[in-house]
Amino acid sequence: TETDAVWERLTQGMRVNLNIRPIDFFGRSTHVNHQINDGPCALIAVCNVLLLKEDIFFEPHETVVSMEYLLNLVVSFLKEKDLVENVPCILYWNNH
Known about the structure:
Elements: H1 2-11, E1 17-25, E2 28-34, H2 41-52, E3 64-66, H3 67-80, H4 88-94
Antiparallel strand pairs: 1-2, 1-3
């Protein structure tokens, strides 16, 4: 279907892994993820903001995450905050 084709284009490259590293941020330990090669910089930036705000978390021992995992973290956060209705592609993601 057309929706499936759009979703396929949106998620191309989501199986790519990103390195994450622990950092100290205002006296507390957290993580940031960073790009190895070209990738969805906006998703990485959103995740880093949510990590720094303590809205999402990685396990302390994690050093690598997939783009798909990051997207799921953002989707879960948006659903928890009841914001998901404003993001059509995320609605599609959660219904499949």
